[in-house]
Amino acid sequence: MTKKKIIINTQLNQFDWSDLDENTLRLIDKAQKATERAYAPYSNFLVGTAIKLESGAIYTGTNQENIAYPSGLCAERVAFFAAKSDYPHQAITQVAIVARQRDQPSFQLATPCGSCRQVMSEYEKQQQQKIELYLVDGTTVYHSASVANLLPFQFSF
Asked: Do residues 94 and 130 touch, judged by C-beta distance below 8 A?
C-alpha cells in the first residue's frame, strides 16, 4: 500500500481594532453586547454571535445552557437558525463570535464547536456564497474569508 501525505492548511488574517471598518466594528459590538444576555449559569462562559444578512439586517444569538446537558445550544446556531427562520432566502454574509468569562470584562478567543462549524458550512454551501468570520481575542480580531477554512472536511452527501 502506498501512503500519501495530505496537508491541509487554513488561513486567518489578524487585525487590530484600528484596522477594521465601521460596519465590522458594529457587527462585533452587537456580538459583544449579546454576551450580556447569554444564559450560562453553569459554565459562566458567555458567548455572543452577530450575523449580517445580505440585506444588512443583523441577528444576534447567545449560548443557552441547560442543566440537562447537552440540551442547550451554542450562540452561533441560535443566531443562524433565527435568521434563516425569518429570512430563508437571504444569504448570510458575515458572522462575529465573541466570548468571555462572566467575571471578566475582556473577551477571549473562542472558536465555534464542531456542530456549529457544520451548520455554518452547510449554510455557506447552500447559499453558494462565502460567509466571512470574525473571532475576537482581546485586542486582536481574527478574520476568515470563509467558514470552509474552519471545516475542510464538511459532512455532505
From this structure: no
